[in-house]
Write a structure and sequence with these properties.
Layout (H helix, E strand, L loop, with lengths): L4 E3 L2 E9 L3 E8 L2 E11 L5 H15 L10 E6 L5 E6 L3 E2 H8 L4 H20 L12 E3 L5 E3 L24 H5 L7 H16 L16 H4 L11 H10 L10 H10 L92 H10 L5 E8 L4 E10 L5 E13 L2 E5 L9 H6 L4
Antiparallel strand pairs: 1-2, 2-3, 3-4, 4-6, 5-6, 7-8, 8-9, 10-11, 11-12, 12-13
Enzyme class: transferase
Protein name: non-specific serine/threonine protein kinase
GO molecular function: ATP binding; protein serine/threonine kinase activity
Length: about 425
């Protein structure tokens, strides 16, 4: 029913997320079809100096030495029409899922996790790269609970998009996050990594309490990091040093790794019983862009703003920059997984050749409901979507799923109902159950 297209060497299958900067798809490469990929494709074409900045960053990423705790970059470059893309190996579960299901880790496992990830971050920093988005939802869980850091696109040139303030945002980057800008630094990566380890121990941070605004409160960020009941005090003291509000007082990633390697487990324990759960505020189940390939997602397809988008997509200028430099953007949340079908991010001209336009135009036709699947047929003559509608008052009851079809007529989508339209292609007739 749907066609498969390619981005570089990657065959893309499903649209996972779309924001103002990029579209993210699941995909595979022919050389290893069992390897799940997360494929990020910029909406904007680049040339000149911006093209060179992206290609320089791409060369650093592909030049990284293989590391067991860094997700493998399968492909990075420019599409035929000059759009930057990045394809990275992914998995179906993340550390956020693991901690939510199983609760805090034993201190010995947390120390091992810290050694592994700080070593990976050290490799990343030595290559001249900054991650900028270390958090449990960006740490993949592979077979045998093997963990890998991913989400390299969050601070990449052209692909970069801002994350909202969170407990993982270093204090020196809070102002930029509040302003909807991207800012990152090696010291910020160490801070985020230390927060991951503290969360894995089951710790409760002063700035992760009731209100979402607490995470950006500078006074709370300056508060001392408490010991975790039932956990070695030496371990939490070391993690607390990496959570210093002053970035100059934090260890570098390689020094942090060395300290974790040498610290003994089994020393004096902080008083009190260990908690059996991880603080909910430290478990973001999703980032700005998903890194997991799941049956469904809470992230919505991109919906253009109030300006009507016709069937010929308009080029928009999107401010981008290298990691560590602020840039503007927007965080979008919302509905359900959309299927990337006959749309082709390397083409231009119609609703069926630009994923941003397809998702936005279908959304214009819906009063409510969540798009589960969308695709085009008959060379772009028809648009079909499976839509999930919430049931009951406020969506509390049992919902319903409907199949919707529209015929493309000029700049309009005309709803099709029943099986009387003789021009409908076989795939649409089958979709509606007419044959």
């Amino acid at each position: 029913m749907s066609s498969i297209t390619t981005v570089g060497p990657a065959a893309v299958h499903r649209l996972l997320h779309r924001d103002a900067v990029c579209s993210v798809f699941s995909g595979t490469v022919a050389a290893d079809p069992a390897d799940l990929l997360c494929v990020t494709v910029a909406h904007e074409r680049v040339d000149g100096s911006r093209r060179e900045v992206f290609l320089e960053w791409a060369a650093k990423l592909t030049g990284l030495p293989a590391h067991p705790h860094l997700s493998r970059c399968s492909a990075v470059g420019l599409t035929e029409n000059g759009r930057p893309y990045l394809a990275v190996s992914t998995a179906r579960r993340t550390l956020a899922d693991l901690l939510a299901e199983q609760g805090p880790m034993p201190p010995g496992q947390v120390r091992a996790l810290g050694v592994a990830l700080s070593d990976a971050v050290t490799v990343y920093h030595r290559a001249g790269l900054i991650h900028g988005a270390i958090q449990p939802s960006h740490i993949l869980v592979g077979s045998g609970h093997h963990l890998q850091l991913t989400a390299y696109d969050v601070t990449a040139p052209v692909l970069a998009a801002p994350l909202p303030p969170s407990p993982y945002t270093a204090p020196e980057h809070l102002d930029a996050a509040v302003a909807g800008e991207v800012a990152a630094s090696p010291a910020g990566d160490v801070y985020a990594l230390a927060t991951v380890l503290y969360a894995a121990l089951g710790g409760r941070l002063p700035w992760v309490r009731h209100a979402r605004e607490d995470a950006a409160d500078p006074l709370l960020r300056a508060a001392p990091v408490p010991h975790v009941p039932g956990v070695d005090s030496d371990l939490t003291d070391l993690i607390g040093a990496a959570l210093s509000a002053d970035p100059r007082r934090r260890p570098t990633a390689d020094v942090f790794r060395e300290h974790l390697t040498r610290i003994p487990i089994g020393g004096p324990l902080a008083p009190g019983p260990r908690t059996d759960s991880v603080a909910a505020g430290l478990l973001p189940r999703r980032g700005l862009r998903p890194v997991t390939v799941a049956v469904s997602t809470e992230l919505a397809p991109y919906r253009p703003g109030r300006e009507r988008v016709g069937l010929r997509p308009r080029l928009r200028s999107i401010a981008t920059a290298t990691a560590g430099i602020a840039l503007t953007g927007a965080l979008l949340g919302g509905a359900a997984l959309a299927t990337y079908a006959a749309t082709n991010p390397e083409s231009t001209g119609t609703v069926c050749t630009d994923p941003a336009v397809l998702g936005g135009r279908i959304s214009e036709q819906l009063d409510d409901g969540e798009i589960i699947e969308s695709w085009c047929a008959d060379g772009g003559g028809y648009v079909a979507a499976t839509v999930d509608y919430p049931g009951g008052s406020g969506g509390d009851g049992e919902g319903s799923t409907e199949r919707r079809v529209w015929r493309i007529e000029g700049d309009d989508l005309v709803a099709v109902s029943g099986c009387t339209d003789a021009a409908m292609p076989t795939s649409i007739l089958e979709f509606l159950g007419c044959i």
